[in-house]
Amino acid sequence: MNTQQTESIKESRFARRLLTLRSGIGAHTRRQDCEEKVSQDPEWLPRVWAVFLLLLAGSTWRLWIGASGYPAVPMIGGTDDLQRPLSLLLFVGIGVGCLIAGTGLFRSDRAWWLVSACLLGSFVLDQHRLQPWAYQAAIVGIVFATMPQEMSRRWIGWLAASIYLYSGLGKLDYQFAHTVGQDFLRPLFTLFGGAERWDETQRAMISLAMPAIELIVGVGLLIRQTYRVAGCCVVLMHLTLVILLGPLGFDHSNGVILWNMLLGVTAWMIFIRRTARPPDRFRDNPQGRHRLRWFAKALVVTVMVMPIFERLGYWDHWPSWALYSPHNSRVKLEIHSSVAGRLPTELVVVPTDQRGWINVDLDAWSLRSRGAPIYPQARYQVALAIEIADAYDLGDGIRLIEQGVADRWTGVRDERVAIGVEELRRLLDRYWLQPGTFAMP
To answer: Does 238 have pLDDT greater than 90?
Structure first.
């Protein structure tokens, strides 16, 4: 081999080494750029939740600071003097926490602790505030406060799947098939020639298709191979509900419409949208964070398990995700015509029966006074009736019919009748959760 060939081989080796070095530097630079881009990518899911929660709380502000004349039913006793200022303080805390978490200017984990703590405190002051969206927000806030983005997305996704599972399962019963389910399908029946084209049994079977699909979608969200398709179904389902429940449909409350929008956006961000995995933002004090994460995980698991006991009476209907489900326990409240003049005119609904009893529409009163649906639990509504009787000195001029949870197969309910405040108090004594006795001024 001559000198010219040797030099050519050396130059070729040097060129290959230089190319390899350049490739390595380029790959390292691209990786650094990617990591920098990911680390600077904001956590959009908690920000979206903060914005929607701010809108939800703002649209139902009368629920959180109290409405004139509408009594509060706390979980524990208290005093009249502290009820309103505490409620206002907690409401401000929710707003401040959402603003901080939504802008990301300060420590968002501390902001979410503030939001969850204020929500839980508000629930204690008044059970009416246990709206499904607020209950979910309190749990999600603790998840955001303790877990990094990828982990929080996973646990919130499991919680969302449980909502659709329990919601679908709760509506697979006689009451939904013969009442609310057919109301939802009324536009479809009209499109195909009217409901009279089908008999009662056929309409009931068609109505049960909705919760069956919801149940299947909930299962699909838990399976890796199907969760993206199931997520698309969830988005479509909530879009349909927004149209049905909006001003052009049933004209439901703003809170219900906003919550459906939030659930649809959440499903898109968790199950459909692809995102890069950011680094752990909780690198400081890893041992303390680890303990808090276990607390949040245990909380989510508890929330996912307890709805099993809803129909047995050991867990409330809304925290069990019994949504648009008419099987819940409830009361029928009636006031005698001899004391009806003591009540606000917005409470009394005619006609009067032959014995002088007048029906009181608590659902409509809740929507008018607080801008939110009434808490669908017989325990709460019995306590609310006692507060009304005490506030307006009704004495024996009040009658209440307590209706238990409807049977899944027949729709039959157990009923108890109580006349007068003393009988109402004995009825309330049957419950293990004894509300306090203070009302909004």
So the answer is: yes
